[in-house]
Amino acid sequence: MITDAIRKEARDLQEKLTDHSYRYHVLDDPVIDDETYDLMLKRLVEIEDLHPELSTPDSPTRRIGAPPLSDFKSAAHSIPMLSLDNGFNDEDITAFHDRNVKTLGDQLREVGKLLYTAEPKLDGVAVELTYENGVLVMATTRGDGRTGEVITDNIRTIDRVPLRLRTSDLPMPELLEVRGEVIINSDDFIRLNQTRINRGEPPFANPRNAAAGSLRQLDSKITAKRPLDIFVYGTGLCRGIEFTSQSHMLECLERFGFPVNLHIQRTIGLKEVLEAYKDLQTLRPDLDYEIDGMVIKVDDLAFQQALGEKIKSPRWAIAYKFPATTKTTRINEIIIQVGRTGTLTPVALLEPVSIGGVTVSRATLHNADEIERKDIRVHDKALVTRAGDVIPKVVKVFPSERKGDEIVFRMPETCPVCDSHVRKLEDEAAVKCINAACQAQLKERIRHFVSKKGLDVDGLGKKIVVQLVEEGMLKSFADIFTLDETALASLDRMGEKSAANLVKAIDAAKNVSLPRFIFALGIDHTGENAARLLAKTFPGLPGLMDADSLTLSSIHGMGEKTASAVTRFFAVKENISLIHDMEKAGLKITNDLYNEKPKTLSDHVFFNKTLVLTGTLEQFKRAEAKERLLAVGAKVTGSVSKKTDYLLAGRDAGSKLKKAQALGIVILDETRFLEMMGE
Ligand code: IVH
Fold it and tell me: Do residues 528 and 408 share a domain?
């Protein structure tokens, strides 16, 4: 027996949760915190478990996943899902426009200019979502364009897909078929693959494959764990609503609660379309999802109808593709580069090819295991990719096109720079040169030592370091502190004034904090965070130098690899005498991070303060920041109000940042936040 009170409680919870989820995921403007949301959801799950008939198809509990299917049903699309013709240059797009103008003839002359929308061409999986009387009842893949697979349970797990349309200011359509692209964001993709690698599962080749694989799960509980996202860009069959233009349709879809891409330009002429393409190309490396071009659509739906369709693609739209980021070329040679920490990296020297307007003549091959796995040989024909500012990579080679002159690559047994024996560490793919005096390492090690995050010596740039090492003036870090002003001034491109400035900068760098110094040493697996953690644990260098790897790995947050790399580093006699030499030359290491006496909670700057966290944080997750804040007695809430003391704003902070600025609330970036946390 279901009482009216339970029925009402379930309905209330469903409505509230739907609203909060929309505010959080689509508007990025939540009004409650995650815990409250989770508690409400838990209660709703409880009620629906007891009374399954209350679990409506649009209940937020459906996002968790449904019982597994035995196979996918197929369903025909009411209106075929077409593909797009491609254009590759401005001429192709101008020809597309001229053809449209010609076909529309008199019809166009009445209104004047032909307008378009220009939309990022998302590189994901096309889907169709069917809403009957406002409720999501079915979702399908594009399939062959006429028939797709039914993936409703999987689509329901995507937080930004409305399970019910929001229609406060629009009449509820009887039928609405919405089309869009399911994607995985680049950061989420990297994390997903890392987890798979850690579990011994094969990584996905790219975000699109990962999205497709996730939608093809018969068990939607697995899909629910995948970081799927969606943008919608069109409609299929509709009853009870009519759109006048593509831009009007997008606006309605937004009002129905769908995520519509932010970078769509609406109602623009040909000239602006061509500019929009250039702008989008510039924007592309900064986007956190993959796009492979721009879709240009005639805006007016009456014009779209007049232009009509071909068998596979409409005449009213075209995809203006970005230049390919992959090309085939030949591997002429494989050379070895020696990095700062002594790692030997094989690099393919390629027959130069232009990829996306940049000439590529080398690509990293990572390590010997990778070469073996991909069976890469010298003289092979290879598929090379370059994405944004990422180092070019060899994706694969074509064994079927071998001519017989290919050479299997072997890692050298000696370092190509200093000729000393190399070794392969257990559990690591890398082969290393362990001679600390190796010239290749010295240049790189010194550059790292004096870099911004290290000792931060102004004026000791790459070129000067190379010159000093090659002239024999720098044989180790310690030599930096005894560099002679007169000798410096005699170097190429270095006047007396710059020499004096450099000596001054070196003097200033002699007072260094422990975390910076640890980082500067360039120990394997020891970045800024690990260095900070070590400095928090040890009052000074002597304690750290004596610590064994067990002690180090028992530090909360310290990885095992770091722990053994640090002990390995300080076990080398030469490294210890190097540090002593530096101290003799005047190096002074201080440590503010180590607190002998833990302060009481109420001393902390964030004690009793209210903070809101927003945007993407680089160095830690929001949940982690929140945990640490709660530990020092702060309150963390989901929305900005007059009661908020601080806003911690990460990358791409949106509406909360604006609101905080308007209210005059103190805004912290990550660095400032960590400083105030005392880290
Ligand atoms: S419109 C008839 N708009 O590109 C119109 N498609 O090659 C066809 N796509 O299957 C779809 N972003 O998966 C459209 N803003 C966008 C798009 C987009 C990505 C994909 C979609 C489609 C394929 C067509």
Answer: no
